[in-house]
């Protein structure tokens, strides 16, 4: 009976968000329109990513188009699609993209109240070998009707209204939080719609996996090194953990959400702030983790408490299962 209900009573992402927002009727329409444009961008990127391998094989890449321009690289193309979709939604005022040095201020006649930070195609070095990649986004709201300023985009992560990612893998998966739990949707290509497939995702309280680029180990600080050592050689009788590292943040975080464990991109001697960007990588993933019952820590504080001072600022990040992040926090506290 219930399987049949699933087949005929389709919970699309739009329907789901409309239901969720029914508590805030004043913002309901605007947020739904904004989200629809983000979803449209993700569908476009999904289709482009799926064709990328083929385009290469049949020689489309690098070919010139009618205007005599070289074919755009996928990350550049994805960025343009997202920027245009977001601006034309009429609901945004500031856009911060990993692809652009400066923020985009939307002109007054198309301006709305949302500020969107995003990485249109994260992990793009993985495209050519067919490994999963993704889009990451976070949404803030302007507090009042002032002229938008850069500070509106430099709010701490805890002020985000919504955040999520879309993973372009063996299937296309869209995961979102609007501050009341985490839900996952899978693209049904025949319908062109994202259907709820992972309701109310909760990360296991403790995990059996750790995920980190161990090639940086010689430059790690003490607590990071001690944590990874503990994963491999536990002294409390627990079994050693498995290592999984894809090198594509969306895919590594997605696995961590579903299976539990930790994902770390710590500081090291060569990169004292780690690698990942605060606004559109660290914050959205930290918001999702907390909403799924996990934690996100920078080595100093709760990740969502960070107040960014620059658009492309970086921060070390440790996120994952609640108990596992407690262990990492204890190691950093012991050192301080
Ligand atoms: P990018 O924005 O240049 O694609 O880099 C971000 C990616 C993340 O997806 C991933 O977590 C990380 O870089 C992997 O870095 P490394 O190759 O240093 O392990
Ligand atoms: Mg990136």
From TrEMBL:
One of its GO terms (cellular component) is cytoplasm. It catalyses: beta-D-fructose 1,6-bisphosphate + H2O = beta-D-fructose 6-phosphate + phosphate. Its EC number is 3.1.3.11. GO terms for molecular function: fructose 1,6-bisphosphate 1-phosphatase activity; metal ion binding. Residues 203-332 form the Fructose-1-6-bisphosphatase class 1 C-terminal domain. InterPro entries: FBPase_C_dom (IPR044015), FBPase_class-1 (IPR000146), FBPase_N (IPR033391), FBPtase (IPR028343), Fructose_bisphosphatase_AS (IPR020548). GO terms for biological process: fructose 1,6-bisphosphate metabolic process; photosynthesis; sucrose metabolic process. It comes from the Eukaryota. Transmembrane segments: none annotated. Keywords: Carbohydrate metabolism, Cytoplasm, Hydrolase, Magnesium, Metal-binding. It is an enzyme of class 3 (hydrolase). Gene3D superfamilies: 3.40.190.80, Fructose-1,6-Bisphosphatase, subunit A, domain 1 (3.30.540.10). It is found in: Cytoplasm. Belongs to the FBPase class 1 family. This is Fructose-1,6-bisphosphatase, cytosolic.
